[in-house]
Amino acid sequence: MNYGYYSSVALVSSVVVYLLAFFAHAAEWASARRIGVAEPAVERELVTAGARSSASGSGSASTGVREPLVAGPDDELADRRIEQFGRIGVMLTVIGFALSVIGVVGRGLAADRGPWGNMYEFTTTALVCVVAAYLLMVWRAGLGWLGLPVTLLATVANGLAVTVFYVAVAPLVPALHSVWFLIHITAASISAAAFNVGGLLSILYIVKKRAEDKGEVRGYLARIPSSRRIDLITYRFHAFAFPLWTFTVAAGAIWAEYAWGRYWGWDPKETWALVTWVIYACYLHARSTAGWRGTKAAVIAIVGLASFWFNFIGVNLLVSGLHSYAGV
């Protein structure tokens, strides 16, 4: 059986399905654009005739009274549409996830090794972990409202993998024949999933917080948790990911000693892994000790995610080093 062919078909199909899931979630957000929107305030002038007093004669008073918000006749229908599009989006995401798993497993069978020997394989494997983390949180914590950015990330990243990063099946280079490489890449994939979900939550936090500050929480933003709740969930994802990333860097150093005879050599990939570690360490430290919660912490988390992706893609494409075997 040509596992490599079926792996490629499954991964390309997953991109299409993730794109459809993104469209479904986009329709979910669009359907909510009028939910929670206040109609223009109508001021009524209430003229009340006062009783004539012996000193001032007749008097009148006027007060501006705003109409209370009343749900429009189409709100119930819109609410059903929102839920329907949301369910379709999650269902398509599950299908896309299943296709991604088939593609990753098929790639491993075709190569007769773990499917993480180059950028193409690590990208597809890491995206399986990202979507798995999202679906787990949908099931356990109702994070379906994160579907739009997650499916966008899955579409773009897997799309780049199958179009730009793809390389034919080949044996691992000698440097990768180590159990520590397996440990290193497994920890990196899991921490990548948590960092990416946390980064997407940070972006959503900033959007929600700005809407709250302006008093313009409307549309789909009115249906997701408060910015304070999003901030707490974001922190938990990063608090989970950071120890794993620390272990990833340490396991990479042990693997480097096995492969190249030194624990640390300031290779570009090693350096940016350390930079990413420092940024996330600053995030956790600032949030827990300096009181940098909310927007400031979210910005640091987004910078950390950008550093993570530059370490993975930018360093491989732009800088040569001992990790160049992982290039496209």
UniProtKB/TrEMBL annotation:
Subcellular location: Membrane
Membrane topology type: Multi-pass membrane protein
Keywords per UniProt: Cytochrome c-type biogenesis, Membrane, Transmembrane, Transmembrane helix
GO cellular component: plasma membrane
Main localization (coarse): membrane
InterPro entries referenced in this protein's UniProt entry, alphabetically: Cyt_c_assembly, Cyt_c_biogenesis_CcsA, Cyt_c_biogenesis_CcsA/CcmC
Transmembrane parts of this sequence: 6-24, 88-110, 122-139, 146-169, 181-207, 237-258, 270-286, 298-319
Keyword Nuclease assigned: no
GO terms, biological process: cytochrome complex assembly
Ranges where the Cytochrome c assembly protein domain occurs: 116-323
Any GO molecular function: heme binding
NCBIfam families documented for this protein: cytochr_II_ccsB
Identification of the protein by name: Cytochrome c-type biogenesis protein CcsB
